[in-house]
Design goal:
The protein contains 18 helices and 14 strands. The protein has 437 residues and is of the alpha/beta class. The strands form two sheets. It has an eight-stranded mixed beta sheet with strand order 3-2-1-4-5-6-7-8, with helices on both faces. Helix 5 links the parallel strand 4 (79-82) and strand 5. Helix 1 crosses helix 3 and helix 10 (199-230) runs parallel beside helix 13 (285-308). It starts with a strand and ends in a 7-residue tail after the last strand. The structure holds uridine-5'-diphosphate-xylopyranose (UDX). Uridine-5'-diphosphate-xylopyranose binds next to helix 10. The site of uridine-5'-diphosphate-xylopyranose has 20 residues, from helix 10.
Amino acid sequence: MKISVIGLGYLGATHAVAMAKLGHEVIGIEPDESRLSALQSGKVPFFEPGLEEALLEVQKSGTLTFQSAHDEASAACELHFLCVGTPQLADSNAADTSHVFAAASELAAFISLDAVVAGKSTVPVGTAQQLKDEMSKIAGFEVNLAWNPEFLREGTALEDSLKPDRIVVGTWDREAESKLREVYQPILETGTPFISLDVPTAELVKVAANSFLATKISFINAMAEVAEVSGADTVALAEAIGFDERIGKKFLRNGVGFGGGCLPKDIRAFIARAEELGVGSAVDFLKDIDEVNLRRRDRVVELARQDLKDLRDKRILVLGISFKPDSDDLRDSPSLDVALRLSALGAKVAVHDPMALGALGDRHPELERAKDIEAGAKDAELIFLGTEWSEYKSIEPASFGDLVANKLIIDGRNVLDVVSWQAAGWRLIALGRNVHN
Ligand code: UDX
């Protein structure tokens, strides 16, 4: 099928590659010049395992091409995927949908009568109807819009796109539904459920899923607050409750909390939208979910202050600044936030990350960039592990030699082996666990 994918961030770039891998002829549309030229030369402008290899493969076979705006070729596509971002507005909790409206309006000026538009961006419920009305006005006919939320995770984005748990589609009309069934046919053939819904439900599925995931993480982090004052162990607690299949073990890892470009802004946008709809109290609990999450960052800063007292001029090494491993995304990253707060309190903070220092660029010059772990650890009085990259999980306490005289480490992700660190003479503080020596 000839399709276009509009907006080539994490979601759009991955979706465009995935669609080309399924055998479709894909035109990727991206107005940002530097992102476009990177993609055109076969480079993915962010770190996502396996994506660049897949991009080169589909570019070579000619099934994926990129351009900055619509033209005759893109206008001739049967299906258009809208993948532009909906970040949080600077001055409120609400999502900024202006980029989606702008992209939809541009498309509407080109779109052919029988084409289908599938929105994949995460939007406040009710947005699709407004987009349909606006696009139809510009096009001069009823635009066939569907909503098709995406659930990919950074770090496993391509795999999640090609082997999703389910494909969710909200439509007003059967033709749109069958077009989407057709485009996903190779995935559906493997037994993936196709869930056909009305449009508002499809819009809500995404925010509801992300709200639930955020709630699970904040639930276990709330238990960590209780565990820290009662002598309990949150990791053991999560394991014990997770054996109940109704609860499950996934997304119950306590630590410094959730971040990234989705969970935090999606719960906030949901709060804002529910308030607009007059049902704010229905999701009021999400404010607590957000607060529990942010309190975990306060807790790390508090632990550092308890131990080092005055942080001024104390050297601290932060291991990991991306919001999760296998990603260089710094959006709303808990560990980067902690690093900046420690630095604002006067500490000399060095940051190390296997992938994300490039994404940090020249922002936050107050943070020293550690060229390797040893260089960052030299004379440090505290190490904070904020992102559980696999190279940190397997780090041996002996590898630091005498670099860290204070031998104090805060494990913000509960991935270090407490016994071996303590046996090596370190004081290890693990969030939500009373294992401190
Ligand atoms: C999330 C959703 O999982 C995905 O379905 C949606 O499409 C986009 O948002 P992503 O942001 O890539 O994906 O990351 P995810 O794996 O969900 O992790 C989000 C954050 O939660 C990370 O900061 C991670 O460290 C944290 N997390 C996750 C925990 O603190 N504990 C857990 O148990 C799981």
